[in-house]
Design a protein that fits this description.
This protein folds into two domains: 114 residues, Rossmann fold; 107 residues, Glutamyl-tRNA Synthetase, domain 3. The chain is 41% helix and 16% strand. A three-stranded parallel beta sheet has the order 1-2-3. Strands 4-5-8 form a three-stranded antiparallel beta sheet. The chain has a two-stranded antiparallel ribbon with strand order 6-7. The protein is elongated. The protein starts with a strand and ends in a 9-residue tail after the last helix. Bound molecules: glutamic acid. Glutamic acid (GLU) binds next to loops.
């Protein structure tokens, strides 16, 4: 089996050094084992994505010497396929239409109330799948959709059970289904959401190992449920520790500004090989610029 890995940045700003480090580990792994290193631009947030950001990502990879194989993929090109897959899950009874009116969904108090309830129930081990549309008879759901009523599509997460996987870096991971919400796959405006798109694209691109930042560890449980619903083989996962500020705080653009952007290092004359060497070998602390 040929190893296939990918770097999947969202083009919503400059190339973050944490993302660059994920790209580096994907590339190193692919090159070591004779695999393929692919680039997928996750540009589904049309308001925030820009060509300029895509360009800076591609330039950043070039600067680091991380060449990618095959044509780069733009996630937005696959949106129709993502929508179709969500509808198929509804047909198969693995997902359901949620007709909750928009105003109600957007009401922060209602949202907060749902979150609080879910937390309280998870703590008590009580099933929190109280969405009234979850068990709406199929004919009724079809009929309401046929009248043009708007709906989001949610995955039907099992009432009982535990999601488990072994992360190559972080080891055994476990999460009770009661702690996983019935995640939204398609918004009521037809917009496919991250967990659905990422899984479908990873399946289509035949990704064997998903190597990315540790901040995606909890998403992985949701994504595995989706692989299972779609009847697709689950790849292996390796989550990487995040790069921290010198005082070990989480790096944020707001607090740490230009330290976070790869371009800064290029513009300040860092030698790319030295940069790669530092991030490849060191515990992930950012480079103090001053
Ligand atoms: N677009 C996501 C991000 O930039 C990709 C995460 C992933 O690799 O699955 O965080």
């Amino acid at each position: 089996m040929t190893v296939r890995v990918r770097f999947a940045p969202s083009p919503t700003g400059y190339l973050h050094i944490g993302a660059a480090r994920s790209a580096l580990f994907n590339w190193l792994f692919a090159r070591k084992v004779g695999g393929r290193f692919l680039l997928r631009i996750e540009d589904t947030d049309l308001q925030r994505s820009s060509d300029e950001s895509t360009r800076s990502i591609v330039e950043g990879l070039e600067w680091l010497g991380l060449d990618y194989d095959e044509e780069k993929v733009f996630q937005s090109d696959n949106a129709d396929k993502h929508r179709a897959a969500a509808r198929k899950l509804v047909e198969e009874g693995k997902a359901y239409r949620d007709f909750t009116p928009k105003e109600q969904r957007e009401d922060k108090n209602v949202k907060q109330d749902i979150v609080d309830r879910a937390r309280a129930h998870a703590a008590e081990g009580i099933d929190h799948r109280s969405n009234p549309f979850r068990d709406l008879p199929k004919e009724e759901s079809d009929a309401r959709a046929a009248t043009g009523e708007r709906f989001a599509i949610r995955l039907k997460v099992g009432r009982e059970g535990t999601s488990r996987f072994t992360d190559i870096v972080y080891g055994e991971q476990e999460r009770g289904y009661s702690e996983i919400e019935d995640l939204v796959l398609l918004r009521s405006d037809g917009h496919p959401l991250y967990n659905l798109s990422v899984v479908l694209d990873d399946i289509e691109m035949r990704i064997t190992h998903v190597i990315r930042g540790q901040d995606h560890l909890t998403n992985t449980h949701k994504q595995i449920l989706l692989y299972q619903a779609l009847g697709a083989p689950v790849p292996q996962f390796a989550h990487l520790p995040l790069i921290l500020a010198p005082n070990k705080a989480k790096l944020s653009k707001r607090k740490h500004g230009e330290v976070v952007s790869l371009t800064t290092y290029r513009d300040r004359g860092f030698v790319p090989d030295a940069f790669v060497n530092y991030f490849g070998r060191r515990i992930p602390l950012s480079i103090p610029l001053k």
